[in-house]
Amino acid sequence: MTTSLDVLPEGLSPTALLLVVLAGLVAGFVDAVVGGGGLVQLPALLLVPGLSPVEALATNKLGSILGTTTSAVTYHRRVHPDLRTALPMAGLALVTSFLGASIAALLPASVFKPVIVVALVAIGAFTLLRPSIGQVTALRHAGRRHHGVAAVVGAVIGFYDGVLGPGTGSFLVFAMVSLLGYDFLAASAKAKIVNCATNLGALVFFVPHGYVFWGLGLLLGAANTVGAYLGARLATTRGSRFVRIAFLVVVTALLLRLGWDVWVEDIRPAS
């Protein structure tokens, strides 16, 4: 385990550091548009010598929270999302993300990956076969039912983000579009607010336990911030149709990545 005073992992070369920072830039951009930045950022951190999976996840959260905060502020200024839904979701997601992070060191990612692959197939197919979904906001529920569904979405995805993380933003966007009835742009704007809370909830657990490499996380966060600002501005300029297309691309990439991981893990014992 690291200590809270650790800055950079031992043996991290300048070339590896540059690649991690570039991954953070790309991840911030992708995450701001539709979520899924962890698809780029977390695997890059897992390649850093001497960094355990839990330390990579914790350092990833530090970098991500700076990016998601930037994109959330940018969306708020340009789209003005309804905070009456987003803030309660964020509060509950923060709590469940903390709970998820507390067991992240106990459960291997292989436990979750097959389930996530199936979910991604369903999400991608549903979005592709229903081209009209998410074009305009048409809320499916009202009053307490609306907020109840939103609370369940925030709680479940918040827990997932604390445990594993990649694809959290995409899952949030899809849930808000399909279950709540928001258009893709409004859903993405709210997802960033909730994602800030999930990152914070995980960090509340990871930081006192000394899992975060602060120097690496802050460098990653600076790159993530630049990418997030550019991505959020592009998404708000291009609108829901662009976000929907980006969503399908990210879901497909995430599916291929996690599907490959599951396949490799399945054949490894036989090799």
From TrEMBL:
Membrane topology, from the record: Multi-pass membrane protein
InterPro entries in alphabetical order: TM_pro_TauE-like, TSUP
Name of one Pfam family that matches: TauE
Cell compartments where the protein resides: Cell membrane
A GO CC term attached to the entry: plasma membrane
Keyword flag Cell membrane: yes
UniProt keyword terms in alphabetical order: Cell membrane, Membrane, Transmembrane, Transmembrane helix, Transport
Listed transmembrane segments: 12-34, 86-105, 111-129, 149-182, 211-230, 242-260
UniProt family annotation: Belongs to the 4-toluene sulfonate uptake permease (TSUP) (TC 2.A.102) family.
The name this protein goes by in its record: Probable membrane transporter protein
Origin species: Modestobacter italicus (strain DSM 44449 / CECT 9708 / BC 501)
Source taxonomy: Bacteria, Bacillati, Actinomycetota, Actinomycetes, Geodermatophilales
